[in-house]
Amino acid sequence: MATTVLDHALIKHKLTIMRDKNTSTYIFKQNLDEIAKLMAYEVTRNVPIRDKVIETPVCQMVGKEIDQQIVLVPILRAGIGLVDGFRDIIPTAKIGHIGMYRDEETLIPHEYYARFPSGLEDSLVIVVDPMLATGGSASMAIQNIKERGAKNILLVCLVGAPEGVALIEKEHPDVNITLAALDEKLNEHGYIVPGLGDAGDRLFGTD
Q1: What is the set of active-site residues?
Q2: Concatenated DSSP letters for 42-72?
Q3: Could you tell me the pTM of the whole model?
Q4: pLDDT digits (tens, 9 = 90+) for 41-65
């Protein structure tokens, strides 16, 4: 199990735009799409591939093609914001959905919706959510996905807190985490500091 924080100038630049409280919903979403594409490129670096014989305009050759189904699972609702960028890079990916909400007083997560494509047991399942705060929602989502047969799971988040990373490492030591940034801490309300606010609200323009 490993936690990787991507060290990429474009990701840092675009994430700074997203963190700015004055950034509009449109620009927030645009930069989220762009960061998602960059993260998709990185996390699929070692996806299994197989030989494929093709004809180029010049001759026959043996190329490569992906040899594993990829399933994206956004944690609703904010996780939806990462799907477009990933699908631009991986258009054949199937999409599952899992709905989690966090009790604002207890911070305990609850599942309210789940729907997945078949074949999870043989797929690379990439769970996506902009924020990894307490880690409770992500941990429960991962556990529920495992119970439906998934064995190869990655967790991809935009911004993480040390507390959330520690929880996933403890409860799911077989799941690799990829972050665009690892922030300082959680505040007393369970929000990431410095963070970027409520990703769902900023993405969809809600209060």
Answers
A1: 102, 106, 198, 201
A2: HHTTT--EEEEEEE-SS-EEEEEEE-S-EEE
A3: 0.92
A4: 999 999 999 999 999 999 999 999 9
